[in-house]
């Protein structure tokens, strides 16, 4: 699973052969989360509230790019959160 970006100890990854709703994975230490791209809601996982907030803030900036990546399965790295 390629790493799309890293920031504040958070890794954002996307599996390109998964099915279901468009989503990405976030890993923060021993915590994991799966975020739906359309709503940016965590649909699975146990990430702390602060990490979820940072991930949503980042994903809001790159939501269109994430959805395009999901649809085309064309991987590209994205900048982290400033």
Describe the protein.
With 82 residues, this protein is of the alpha+beta class. The protein has one domain. It contains 1 helix and 5 strands. The protein has a 5-stranded antiparallel sheet, with helices on one face. β1 and β2 form a beta hairpin. The chain starts with a strand and ends in a 10-residue tail after the last helix.
List keywords for this structure.
single chain; 82 residues; alpha+beta; five-stranded antiparallel sheet; 1 helix; 30% strand; globular
A few lines on this structure:
This protein is an alpha+beta fold and 82 residues long.
Strand-helix topology:
Blueprint: E1 3-7, E2 10-13, E3 23-28, E4 31-36, E5 42-45, H1 49-72
Antiparallel strand pairs: 1-2, 2-3, 3-4, 4-5
Low-confidence runs: none
Number of helices: 1
Listing every helix as H and every strand as E from the N terminus to the C terminus, the arrangement reads: EEEEEH
What is the CA–CA distance across the termini? 24 Å
pLDDT averaged residue by residue: 95
Helix content: 25-40%
Secondary structural class: alpha+beta
How many strand elements? 5
Strand content: 25-35%
What is the spatial order of strands in the main beta sheet? 1-2-3-4-5
Our Rg estimate from Cα atoms comes to 11 Å
Name the shape in a single word: globular
Largest sheet: 5 strands, antiparallel
Domains counted in the coordinates: how many?
1
């Amino acid at each position: 699973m390629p790493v799309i970006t890293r920031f504040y100890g958070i890794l954002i990854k996307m599996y390109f052969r998964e099915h279901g709703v468009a989503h990405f994975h976030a890993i923060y230490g021993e915590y994991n989360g799966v975020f739906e791209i359309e709503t940016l809601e965590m649909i699975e996982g146990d990430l702390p509230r602060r990490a979820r907030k940072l991930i949503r803030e980042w994903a809001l900036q790159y939501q269109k790019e994430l959805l395009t990546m999901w649809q085309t399965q064309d991987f590209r790295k994205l900048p982290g959160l400033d």
